[in-house]
Write a structure and sequence with these properties.
Length: 224
C-alpha cells in the first residue's frame, strides 16, 4: 500500500487537479450507458423500433440495423452528461480554485499526495440549496486516481470535510452523486451519510432514467 498525505490545495496543483477531476467523471460514462440500456423504458423503446422497422420494410435484418443505429446514437448522448458536467466545473469553481475554495468563507480544498503526485481531491463549500444555507456544508469534487483506490484515500478525504464542518459548528454535510457511482455511494454510506432524495439533472436525463442521489450526514453537536 502506497503512503500518502492529505494537505491543502496549492497553486502548483492546478493542472493535476483539473485532469484528475475530468478523468474521474468521464470514466463513469460507460456505466451510465449500460444502466440506461438495462432500463425497462429503453428496452421497450428498442423493441418497438425493431418491430416498426421490420413491419415497414419487411426484413428483420433492417430492424436489427435500426436498433444498432439507435444504440450507437445513444452513446454520445449519454456521454454528454459527463462531458457537460466536466466542462461546467472547469469553467466555474475549478477555473479559479483558490478564489472558489481557499478565499471564500467556510470553504476549503484538499488534495491527497503520493509519490510527489496529486492522486486525490475533495472540496467543501456552503450548501447550494437555499434551505441548507447556514445549516450544512456541501462536499464537492471528490475524486481519487484509479491506481490509488482501495487504500483509504477517499475515506480520509471525506473525513477532512466532516471534521472541517464539525469544527465550524455546522449541523450537517450534504453531497450529490450519480446513480452509477456505486463505490462512492458505499463510501458515503459507510461514513454516516443517508440518501435523502433523488432528482434528474434534466428532462433528457429523466427520459433516460438517469438520476442524481442527494445524501446528508448529520453531525453531532452542530449548532450552525
Amino acid at each position: 500500500m502506497a503512503s500518502y498525505r492529505i494537505r491543502q490545495y496549492r497553486e502548483q496543483d492546478y493542472d493535476a487537479v483539473r485532469t484528475l477531476f475530468a478523468r474521474g467523471i468521464l470514466e463513469h460514462a460507460p456505466a451510465g450507458y449500460r444502466h440506461i440500456l438495462r432500463s425497462a423504458r429503453a428496452q421497450l423503446g428498442l423493441l418497438i423500433l425493431f418491430a416498426a422497422v421490420r413491419a415497414a420494410a419487411g426484413y428483420w435484418v433492417l430492424g436489427l440495423a435500426a436498433v444498432a443505429l439507435a444504440l450507437a446514437a445513444t452513446w454520445p448522448v449519454v456521454r454528454s452528461f459527463s462531458t457537460s458536467y466536466v466542462q461546467e466545473a472547469l469553467c466555474t469553481d475549478l477555473c479559479d480554485i483558490s478564489t472558489s475554495y481557499l478565499r471564500a468563507p467556510d470553504s476549503c480544498f484538499w488534495v491527497a499526495e503520493a509519490g510527489g503526485s496529486v492522486v486525490g481531491m475533495v472540496a467543501v463549500a456552503p450548501a447550494q440549496d437555499p434551505a441548507e444555507r447556514g445549516v450544512a456544508l456541501e462536499l464537492k469534487r471528490m475524486s481519487v486516481s484509479k491506481d490509488y483506490r482501495g487504500q483509504g484515500i477517499s475515506k480520509a478525504l471525506c473525513g477532512e470535510v466532516l471534521h472541517f464542518a464539525r469544527a465550524r459548528g455546522y449541523g450537517a454535510v450534504v453531497l450529490s452523486t450519480s446513480m452509477v457511482q456505486v463505490a462512492a455511494q458505499r463510501l458515503y454510506e459507510g461514513q454516516g451519510f443517508k440518501k435523502v432524495g433523488t432528482f434528474s439533472p434534466s428532462l433528457l436525463g429523466s427520459l433516460l432514467c438517469f438520476q442524481i442521489f442527494h445524501y446528508r450526514c448529520d453531525l453531532p453537536g452542530g449548532t450552525a
